């Protein structure tokens, strides 16, 4: 059996187009384009953008629009959604949007689908105008979406119909793992924020997988937060930006992405403990390039992942570019 490592599995990028404190979405989108162009040249496999709403620090809410912007600014890398939260949308609209993207950038578009709202209840209502659509209806929504691409829907998606756009199912529990297995689809698990559920979910997916016309064997991509810097101390300092964002969400006070800090006297003991726990888990790998390579290699060997998608939540753009550059060098 081949031992999976950086040399024989693809690395990809997950981007939320973070909106920094003191900056604007315009600057965030420029940074996303610059990052995408760098990782395109460096040999990363995919560049995915995630749908979130009503969050001041995340700029990728109009996900399909941003996918087109990134695809138009790059040459080789696949660009897609990590993911589109399907309950927020009419399936026909997504078929048309991604049919348009695939027509503009043939062979480079991925459609990753999630069943969570990517927002709070009030925002979900504002998006849908009703909360009658539940996550439990997700399998039927996926089936409807596929019917538009196949040309078997009760109306037709133009563009979209007849196009071969890879559909991924995303999840942070075993629900989508079971659905991806039953329908023979690619599966991406959010281990970057649900690390404790990673192994159970991918075991279920692999054990229950049924081959389909899309895929003859299981394919798993796992999300990981990675911050690589020249010193472990700097990497840990850079990680405090993500922790501030996380605690802001927990406290119900989301804000723009904050610069790193030396010490936060506002954190209580539980929050400090949560910070330390996140740094000691495979869901958040930080350190020098050698430390990151060691931890990420161990994670790949333990999970037998087919691909890794990396989120690097770093405030300063030049530090974020540098972190991905270290990863690119590990692939060589």
UniProtKB/TrEMBL annotation:
<feature type="domain" description="Luciferase-like">
    <location>
        <begin position="17"/>
        <end position="304"/>
    </location>
</feature>
<dbReference type="InterPro" id="IPR050766">
    <property type="entry name" value="Bact_Lucif_Oxidored"/>
</dbReference>
<keyword id="KW-0560">Oxidoreductase</keyword>
<protein>
    <submittedName>
        <fullName>LLM class flavin-dependent oxidoreductase</fullName>
        <ecNumber>1.-.-.-</ecNumber>
    </submittedName>
</protein>
<dbReference type="GO" id="GO:0016491">
    <property type="term" value="F:oxidoreductase activity"/>
</dbReference>
<dbReference type="Pfam" id="PF00296">
    <property type="entry name" value="Bac_luciferase"/>
</dbReference>
<dbReference type="InterPro" id="IPR011251">
    <property type="entry name" value="Luciferase-like_dom"/>
</dbReference>
<dbReference type="InterPro" id="IPR019949">
    <property type="entry name" value="CmoO-like"/>
</dbReference>
<comment type="similarity">
    <text>To bacterial alkanal monooxygenase alpha and beta chains.</text>
</comment>
<dbReference type="InterPro" id="IPR036661">
    <property type="entry name" value="Luciferase-like_sf"/>
</dbReference>
